[in-house]
Amino acid sequence: MSRAAVALLALLALGPALGPAMAEVAPGTTPGSATGLFGGYDDHNAFARILRGELPATKVYEDRQAFAFMNIHPLSTGDLLVIPKRPYRNMMDIPPAVLAHLIQVTQRLARAQARALHPDGIFIRQNSGEVAGQTVFHFHMHVTPQYAGVPLAKTSYGQAPADPKELAAVAAKIRAAMR
User: Fold this and answer.
1) What letter would DSSP give residue 76?
2) Fewest CB atoms within 10 Å of the CB: 22, 69, 124, 133?
């Protein structure tokens, strides 16, 4: 595993000290499906449906293993998600090689966000299990720009999603900064 992967894993271990992003389970989750650390994969979750083209997503990046898209309930301008294309629920079942690749993609996207959006910091997190704040049970990394003096938004699945045109404009800036 690369040094970057090891460093990010150490940072992720601090997640609980920073506080989980507790929220309700995402709509579309199969009732009674596993929401803890262990259990079967629910192929009706929102990210599986995005990968199959059943739900729309504003793509920022894609390769053979990873897909990154804008968060439709952003905590800040430029908030995006990085997911594997294969069905892994959380940190407990994702293979180390896939995780290392996703961390490299996450770093590349964070650097692009920094160049394109000029945040004062970038908050990277991964929540595993409902109690830790995971709301969609497909492994994902949050890559959230933070701006001094601007608190992160309090979002809910009950709120309307962000304007797709605004998400597309921000995604275009991030993609341009990746070149």
Assistant:
1) S
2) 22
